[in-house]
Amino acid sequence: MSLKRVLGATTALTLCSAAAFAQDTTITIATVNNGDMIRMQGYTDQFTEETGIGVEWVTLEENVLRQRVTQDIATGGGQFDVMTIGTYEVPIWANQEWLAPLDDLPEDYNVDDLLPAVREALSVDGTLYAAPFYGESAMIMYRTDLAEEAGIDMPDSPTWSEVMSAAEAMTDKENDIYGICLRGKPGWGENMAFLTAMANSYGARWFDMDWKAQFDSEDWTATLNDYLTMMNEYGPPGASSNGFNENLSLFQQGRCGMWIDATVAAGFVTDPDESTVADSVGFAQFPNKEGVDNHGNWLWAWSLAVPASSDDTDAAKQFVAWATSQEYTQLVAEDEGWRAAPPGTRTSLYENEEYQEAAPFAEMTLESMNAVDTQAPSVQEIPYTGAQFVAIPEFQGIGTAVGQQFSAALAGQVDAETALSNAQTSTQREIDRAGYGEN
Amino acid sequence: MARAVSNQRKAINTAVAWIIALLIFFPILWTILTSFKTEAEAIADPPSFLFFNWTLDNYTTVQARSDYFGHFWNSVVISVGSTILGLIIAIPSAWAMAFVPGKQTKNVLMWMLSTKMLPPVGVLVPIYLIFRDVGLLDTRFGLVIVLMLINLPIIIWMLYSYFREIPGEILEAARMDGAGLRSEILYVLTPMAVPGIASTLLLNIILAWNEAFWTLTLTAANSAPLTAFIASYSSPEGLFYAKLSAASTMAIAPILIMGWFSQKQLVRGLTFGAVK
């Protein structure tokens, strides 16, 4: 009798402690406030149910998040078990050995299903360091009704001169309709994301093989001049303070003929609840200059990475695998429809007929993403990798300084020549100071 | 006739005061109005001022998505805690500086103020490392300490200028009557300086409530106050202005209401001694 009791008590205790242990594991995830991320937060209860791992969220605005997680990972603070970072940070942080490699993902994760461009952007020497949650490239979104009115037949893959003449034809300033809306707000991730992509498609490069800045080249001059011409003649007023959100708002209000920006915008501008032009949006590939085989090479993937300083690497990896899996996509699709599935990460999503039907922008998104080569974003020889950015730690500072020059040129405070020469000087100074090109 | 002119002037003054007040209040009013709009109406051009479909959806969404009361409670603990801790340290030090100044008192006061001249980001890394090593990251206690240190110069300066207005003779008289240092500060000085202490308290609670650098950088999931709650609704890709406005309204409402009820105290405290 007493032995039975002892056994019973032991079993009960063991069970209790096992249960307590299961609930004790809680991971903290830092993320951005984007639609897909917020949606994921809604499904975390299911993850907790399946695995017994609790999840706490820290949601922050993108710039705050970047500062917050960089500071934590650089000092080994260990505040976060999963961090939401982009294609810019992953190679830099992986080289610093700040991230835990994701080389032991479960077999059913199907890592080969990830879009090749995205997988490559998130890998260093063939090892994956972050799993993509959603990805984007850039493309043209245009108003099919305005194009028709103006008698334009937009090709699937237009050149910059075709885009310029389309912008001219669609502009109707008296009715507040502007042929083209582009980013002008200064910042490495704002106007310089667009202008770097545009420069790529003009055959320009940030640096030559000796790390000499190239703003004094003809390609950059042509890029900036054409950008300024387009924006001054066919763009909306006050464009030097327009970023993604401002242009999104203008486009949704029917003020823009064309908008060239991240593919993720397609979901917003075709949403009838938000957009007044939802049923008349067409898509085309990011333009290139005649004779230059490059469509900007814009690639961004908000990805989940596990910092090496995390106390709970295993639980964190389990979450990363769950949130970026095919099952998760299926879960969202079943619950909210295929349109809500996180885009731009997996080939299987684009092969799914239901998704193709629900998302009219699917084909162009996939085409844009597949056209990207992050190892060679420029057609010229370059010493760096990247996309609409240069993947070096100094780029945030350099890019923002150059962005301020170009934004000032757009606002008419300096001319294009001065802006380029200032950009050249400041970039070269910073890159020399950082010691690039010395060996 | 003279009376008519003065009435007219009075009316003009009142009108000007109202216009200025409305101009200052307008951004807050606009935030509150936007929080009752749909996302599409929030960005509508031209914007509608009052005639839109009023909705509470944003508030329910925000409430469902975030733990408002958790953040609210953190804000209360951090702002009230840091202010009270600051007052406990500042009252004796302001007393010393006001009534028994030494040769270096002026310099010490200036030196304390100079700590406010350094941009906080300049000491971010050392503080972060110290916090990491002593395990204060993402704790309310850590934030209470940091915000207290940040606001301490202001608290001391404010109290110092209030105390200086109090005639030293009264304290002397108390001493003559046999009051010790503790009784002098506690039973004579403090009651006389209540308006000053109250306005210092209120102002510092407001400053600590709105502090958005340290409260964002030193917190994660456990101790994040309402500033982090607002920051979680700002998005670089996507227009969530209505939800952001609802979150902002919820975050500023408590402090706005507190300020409203205590405005007399605040104004009195801030202008204390200004007319001498």
UniProtKB/TrEMBL annotation, chain A:
Transmembrane region(s): none
Signal peptide per UniProt: 1-22
Pfam families: SBP_bac_1
Keywords: Signal
Intracellular or extracellular location(s): Periplasm
InterPro entries membership: Bact_solute-bd_prot1 (IPR050490), SBP (IPR006059)
Family membership noted in the UniProt record: Belongs to the bacterial solute-binding protein 1 family.
Protein's recorded name: Sugar ABC transporter substrate-binding protein
Organism expressing this protein natively: Roseivivax halodurans JCM 10272
TrEMBL record, chain B:
Domain ABC transmembrane type-1: 72-262
InterPro entries (alphabetical): BP-dep_ABC_trans_perm, MetI-like, MetI-like_sf
PROSITE patterns: ABC_TM1 (PS50928)
Transmembrane segments: 12-33, 72-96, 108-131, 143-163, 184-207, 213-233, 240-261
Pfam families per the UniProt record, alphabetical: BPD_transp_1
GO cellular component: plasma membrane
Family stated for the protein in its record: Belongs to the binding-protein-dependent transport system permease family.
One GO-annotated biological process of the protein: transmembrane transport
Alphabetical keyword list: Cell membrane, Membrane, Transmembrane, Transmembrane helix, Transport
Cell location: Cell membrane
Name this polypeptide is given: Mannitol ABC transporter permease
Recorded topology in the membrane: Multi-pass membrane protein
PANTHER family: INNER MEMBRANE ABC TRANSPORTER PERMEASE PROTEIN YCJP, MALTOSE TRANSPORT SYSTEM PERMEASE-RELATED
Chief place of localization: membrane
